[in-house]
Write a structure and sequence with these properties.
The complex is a heterodimer of chains A (172) and B (284).
Chain A lengths: L1 H22 L1 H6 L2 H13 L1 H19 L5 H19 L5 H27 L7 H24 L1 H10 L9
Helix pairs in contact in A: 1-3, 1-4, 3-4, 3-5, 3-6, 3-7, 4-5, 5-6, 6-7
Chain B lengths: L3 H25 L6 H34 L2 H36 L9 E9 L7 E4 L12 E4 L2 E7 L7 E5 L6 E6 L5 E6 L6 E4 L12 E4 L11 E9 L7 E6 L8 E5 L8 H4 L5
Antiparallel strand pairs in B: 1-2, 1-12, 2-5, 3-4, 3-12, 4-5, 6-7, 6-9, 7-8, 8-11, 9-10, 10-11
The chains are: A mainly alpha (172), B alpha+beta (284).
């Protein structure tokens, strides 16, 4: 059930991202919905699920992008893992810490992605800081919104209460 | 028994090694189609088609509603524009007829009309920063790798990779890995237009310093790369400055608005071999 939910979230993020890019290239650079989905999964389900979601989402994105397959997969795997570990170590059940996680993850992902491209293709390192900052802010807002939507959904809250678990008390 | 942290570490290591092997295999290979790419494109293009249809439906519905507002004023404005354009059309017809006569006089061979097929843009690139689009035509429609893609305003890009049956990926000319042979229409100074990640997103390289290039000059495809049809508009020179080396520094504003591409034309003519001396580096 969890795996199906994660895969569904990644597929939805991919479809939305490609549709958005089809409508406007500028719109596509403004947000990375697959990354948002990976960070969300890592925060909600932990490092292993985050890492696997990063691998699946990143590879799918690479395969559809026409570039080198594996660069995005590797970046997102790392981000899924790191965010999952940090999410288990710190209390990230409030809006601000979650926002910080999304923003930090976006910067870390972009750094990793550009560095890998630099290594693989031998081109100069070209990080666009202002565009990344905008994308980080938009990713953060969408991530927070996704958490709010899921947590305000009554069925999910009831199930969570019944299980007696919370996001801040997850196991590693 | 392995500790859960250890197991996670091993899993991460295994995935990372897998990625490194995957990337290395691609970097080392000189050519060939990636099966994963073709399969993913083929399968996902169906989803993209559906998503594009839903989005187009919603957009059309909203567009129709908004379109009704102020339609009268717009109608009048369009009528005035139409009248003006009809006059211009007459002028152009006269010019075209004169050109045909001149061509006949000079015994020039008239070039045949390019065979094209219209294609809808069904998706963009899921990786922000990489500039490719997916179109709803593929190998079943006669689309092949390296075929040029154009729009009414100018050159759009070329088909990359093996197309799926009903979808193909197009590398836009503003992609950082794109390049095409180009010539400044007014002075016939030749060079190479490449995509860059700044605004404007095109740069014209290899135009020597003494060449006559000015802001506002039209840049068209030279055809030396064997892919893009000769004479099709690429864009307009925005800035031309004397470079530090042998060549001018020229920035080009593309003629096509890539942020609102809905429909394109695929030139069905197969690519020709590039002209060796001029275009060895024209297509990366």
């Amino acid at each position: 059930m969890k795996a199906a939910g994660v895969l569904l979230a990644l597929a939805a993020a991919l479809v939305l991202q490609t549709t958005l890019a089809g409508l406007s290239l500028e719109g596509a650079t403004l947000v990375n919905l697959v990354l948002v989905a990976v960070v969300y999964v890592a925060l909600a389900f932990g490092a292993v699920t985050g890492m696997l979601a990063g691998t699946a989402g990143g590879l799918a994105q690479d395969a559809l992008a026409g570039g080198i397959i594996g660069v995005g997969g590797m970046s997102k795997t790392l981000i899924g893992f790191i965010v999952g570990v940090l999410g288990a170590q710190f209390i990230v059940s409030q809006t601000l810490p979650r926002f910080v996680m999304f923003v930090g993850a976006t910067f870390a992902h972009e750094l990793c992605f550009q560095a890998l491209h630099t290594l693989v293709e031998g081109r100069p390192f070209a990080m666009q800081w202002s565009a990344t900052l905008t994308q980080a802010a938009v990713n953060g807002l969408i991530g927070i919104f996704a958490f709010q939507v899921v947590e305000l959904s009554p069925g999910i809250v009831q199930r969570r209460r019944a299980r007696g678990t919370s996001l801040s008390r997850r196991r590693y | 028994m392995l500790d859960i942290r250890q197991r996670t570490g091993y899993l991460l290591l295994a995935i990372m090694v897998g990625h490194v092997i995957l990337i290395s295999a691609q970097v080392q290979s000189k050519s060939g189609v990636r099966v994963l790419e073709v399969v993913a494109l083929g399968a996902f293009s169906r989803v993209q088609l559906g998503a594009a249809a839903v989005v187009d439906g919603a957009r059309n519905f909203w567009g129709n509603y908004v379109g009704l507002r102020g339609a009268r004023a717009e109608n009048e404005q369009l009528r005035a524009q139409l009248a003006e354009l009809e006059v211009r059309l007459q002028e152009q017809r006269a010019l075209a007829a004169r050109t045909v006569r001149l061509q006949e006089l000079l015994d020039l061979k008239t070039s045949a009309t390019l065979p094209t097929i219209a294609a809808e843009v069904i998706g963009g690139n899921p990786n922000p920063g990489m500039r490719t689009i997916t179109i709803g035509r593929g190998s079943a429609d006669g689309v092949r790798a390296n075929m040029a893609v154009i729009a009414p305003k100018g050159v759009v890009g070329r088909v990359i990779g093996e197309p799926a049956a009903h979808a193909a990926r197009v590398q836009l000319i503003i992609d950082r890995d794109a390049a095409l042979g180009a010539v400044v229409e007014r002075s016939r100074s030749g060079g190479m237009v490449v995509g860059v990640e700044v605004d404007p997103p095109l740069r014209m390289d290899l135009v020597s310093n003494p060449s006559d290039v000015k802001a506002g000059d039209l840049v068209v495809a030279s055809g030396v790369d064997g892919i893009y049809p000769k004479g099709y508009t690429i864009g307009q020179v925005e800035k031309a400055e004397r470079g530090t080396g042998l060549y001018l520094t020229i920035t080009v504003r593309p003629a096509v608005d890539f942020s609102s591409l809905d429909d394109v034309l695929v030139v069905l003519a197969p690519p020709r071999p590039a002209m060796p001396a001029q275009a060895g580096e024209a297509v990366k």
